[in-house]
Amino acid sequence: MKHVSENRDAPAQPPPWAGPVASSERAFPLDLPGFLTREQHRIHLVGVAGSGMSGIAALLIKLGHTVSGSDNVSTMETDRLQRLGLRFHEQHRPEDADTADLIVFSSAIKGDNPILVCARSYGKPVVRRAEALAAIMRGKRGIVIAGMHGKTTTSAMTAHVLREGGLHPCHYVGAEIPILGTNAHWDSRGEYFVAEGDESDGTIALFQPEHTVILNIEEEHLDFYADLGAIEKVFAQLITQTTGKVFYNIDDKNAVRVCRSLARGISYGFADEADYRAIDIRLKDFGSMFRVSRRGQDLGEAVLNVPGQHNVHNALGVIALASELGVTFEKISKSLAKFEHARRRFEIKYHSPRFLLVDDYGHHPTEIRATLKAAKSVGRKRVLTMFQPHRYSRTKALRKEFGRAFDDADRVVVTDVYGSNEAPIPGVTGQMIVEEVVAHGHRGASYEPRLQWVHCAVGNMLESGDLVLSLGAGNIHEQLSALAADLVIAEKLKAIVGENGEVRLYEPLSKHTTLRVGGPAQFWVEPRNEKVFAELIRFCGDENFPLFVMGRGSNLLVRDGGIRGVVVHPCGGEFDKIEVNGAEITAGAGAKLKEVAYAGKAAGIGGLEWLEGIPGTVGGGLRMNAGAMGAQTFENVVRVRYLDANGEAHTRTRDELEVYYRNFPLLEKNFAVSAVFRGQSAPLEEIVRKLEASQEKRRTSQPAAKSAGCIFKNPDSCPAGKLVDELGLKNSSVGKARVSEVHGNFIVNDGGATAVEMLELIEKIKATALAKRGIELETEVQIVGEPG
Ligand code: EPU
Q1: How remote is the CA of residue 517 from the centroid of ligand 1, in Å?
Q2: pLDDT in tens, 375-399
Q3: Element (H, E) at 496
Q4: What is the rounded distance in angstroms from the CA atom of residue 177 to the CA atom of residue 58?
Q5: Which residues have C-beta atoms less than 6 Å from ligand 1?
Q6: Residue 517 clears pLDDT 90, i.e. is over it
Q7: Which residues contact 731 (CB under 8 A, 6 or more apart)?
Q8: Tens digit of pLDDT for each residue in 285-331?
């Protein structure tokens, strides 16, 4: 292996890994840079699947070492590394310490890891990831990109610009960078090594680079540092150890404080006195344009295809560095224009004329503010944000700053903290952040503790023209991906319904059931006419999506997990139409049964008054053969029009139909469109009298509270209500679900009841009826959906 070091690695002071922040595992004298870059050994990496560790593994393999690694999980990264030669074990086996000459471990690995324990007992050399990286870097001329925010983007940008400038740099950055190919790369042809320096655990002070870029310095990682002073000290140490130039952001007051007095300092930013300065900045949708001047001399125009003012700063740092390394501005600006974002840095997950979904890793208040500003500048109607706080310690320490970070978001849904490797701190939750955001005066913040429901909460708010942003360093991006996948389908559904309907994602079915219980419908679609309904049926058939039709939801108990697939709610347009023709009334499936009764009254048609007491729609009444006042739907229905599973329309007369007590099986696999009801001409006073009798019956024998009507079918032996009453179960409850004291066959929702509570109460009643009276109660209410 060719080695390119010019022996700059003979420090006057003790080696950095012997310094105050270095590992305590130092039972051996070791020239680590020489060991890693000039010799070849057997090296084992503990926690190799981590994003930082996998980069080290790739570099070590490229340097010719025999590399093995262990982790509790295997990932796409470990698969890729195995193809490059990594020997991987999905468990930490002590014998791996035995066979290795050196152990490198991730900061996520605890001291009692069996490989570390074993290595220590053998006196094997053990080093931390950052120590290994710092040592590898010393085989080259190091460039460290340091700072609290923008490191990954800027280090990737630097590696890209130097690569395009023909310098063949090696690099190590903390995320997958599509434009660079991989997160770590060794190129024996080049002299430079660009690395993202990690300040989070102080190991940044291990580097002895030739050049350093200081992006910004701020209070962060307060789990590790006492205060800003302690953070600045570590940066100051890095600067002292930098042999060449220190590039710093002149618009960041802490960076200025640390770097101002340096003779080797080169400043960049927007301020007049910056050595490299951006002027005439024009931010556009996904990027910006600006002119660059060096100490008053115009260098030219830069175009950036990553958004936000913060990235103008990042690019200026890269321009300053690359210029000082001798890359021409023409080359720099050309390669900057080609630069694409790192994964999870304003990464566009979905883009259509109606919606834009963007994911960003931002997790510190400053990053959040910058990313939201960039999101706002894109010019969409609203910015909806899903935020997952990262680490309990940060959430606690910066709660006030988080409260002020979301001003540029129209809506914010905050979920619970992604702990990383931290133990929870009591009281430190997403709720705490929401309280801070609200206290700061934000009107659109809400809390969703269950991560897997966050995409539903945000998705249900979606309106055409919205930008949705997921923010956080944990796994919140998976929620945005889930939303993006469903949005693709929702857009197809929208294309089907066009102006003749509505499509909404994750509509809470508690809004559409009279019981006010139920999780969301994955896709909620309201067609306005038969043609659109038929197309929806065909689409669901072709795509193999479950389709469920919902009327007024008056006889429905939807479980807390909601309904997967397409929920069709025919309403408005043709579906609400009621037409009278002689003694016949034709009503659309979405019309209320009550309105059929009143249309009868208006036209002097009697015999339909009892429909007044049924809270459902025509479609629901047909499906259930609903009944009241001793009558049932099919006593009045003479024709039914329906769509079959292929979306074909059919009309059947009453005598062609099979109908049972509370059941009309045809509609199990077909979908009602309309029905013709027949009454008979009757004097108005008689109709009014019957309507009033029905109202009176309802008023006196049924609860006014939220319910799904009768829960059980009436068994032959005794009406269910009477039975429940006799069993003494009235008023018994589970949570907020309670048996009505008015009527034993009604369960009422006292406010916020869950389906789980409802179902538990139903089971309790059934069990009691069976045990005490030997009666098997059968539910009349339809129970559907997924468990919560
Ligand atoms: N009863 C009691 N205690 C009670 C409830 C009822 O003793 O807590 C007695 C009543 O006094 C009556 C008998 O049980 O002697 C039957 O009760 P009710 O007249 O209220 O009728 P129901 O059979 O319970 C049926 C329908 C209702 C409809 C009413 C009114 C069924 C399962 N229920 O109730 O429909 O509103 O008649 O006509 O057929 C529905 O379908 O969701 C529904 C509520």
Answers
A1: 22
A2: 998 889 999 999 999 999 999 999 9
A3: helix 477-497
A4: 15
A5: 613, 626-629, 697, 701, 709-710, 713-714, 719, 721-722, 725, 743-745, 780
A6: yes
A7: 738, 739, 741
A8: 778 999 999 999 999 999 999 988 999 999 999 999 999 999 999 99
Distance CA 439, CA 433 (A): 10
Q: Please identify, by atom number, the ligand 1 atom nearest to the C-alpha of residue 713.
A: 32
DSSP helix/strand/coil, 687: helix
Is 601 an annotated catalytic residue? no
Residues with Cβ within 8 Å of 334's Cβ and at least 6 positions away in sequence, in order, are 164
Contacts of 690-697 with CB under 8 Å at 24 or more apart are 690/606, 690/609, 690/610, 691/597, 691/601, 691/609, 691/612, 693/609, 693/629, 694/609, 694/610, 694/612, 694/613, 694/628, 694/629, 695/612, 695/613, 697/613, 697/628, 697/629
Cα 632 to Cα 661: distance, rounded to the nearest angstrom: 8
Q: Which residues of 641-679 are buried (b: 16+ CB within 10 A; e: fewer)?
A: bbbeeebeeeeeebeeeebeebebebbeebbbbbbbbbb
Closest CA to 158 of 30, 275, 322: 322
**Which ligand 1 atom sits closest to the C-alpha of 743?**
8
Chain center to CA of 651:
46
Looking at residue 5, its pLDDT comes to 30
Reply yes or no on whether the pLDDT at 188 is more than 50: yes
What is the value of pTM for the model shown? 0.76
Strands (E), 399-480: 411-414, 445-447, 466-471
The position carrying tokens 């190919």 is 181
**210 assigned to active site:** no
Query: Is the pLDDT score of 25 beyond 80?
Result: no
Going by alpha carbons, the residue nearest to atom 14 of ligand 1 is 722
CB-based contacts of 230, cutoff 8 Å, min separation 6: none
Q: How far is CA 34 from CA 7, 63, 208, in A?
A: 10, 12, 15
List C-alpha distances in Å: 741 to 621, 629, 709, 712: 26, 21, 14, 16
Show the tokens assigned to 498. 């066009």
**Could you please report the per-residue DSSP string of 595-664?**
HHHHHHHHHTEES-GGGGG--SBHHHHHHHT-EETTEEGGGTEEEEEEE-TTS-EEEEEGGG---BTTB-
Tokens of residue 206, six digits = 């291990």
Does 151 participate in catalysis according to the annotation?
Answer: yes
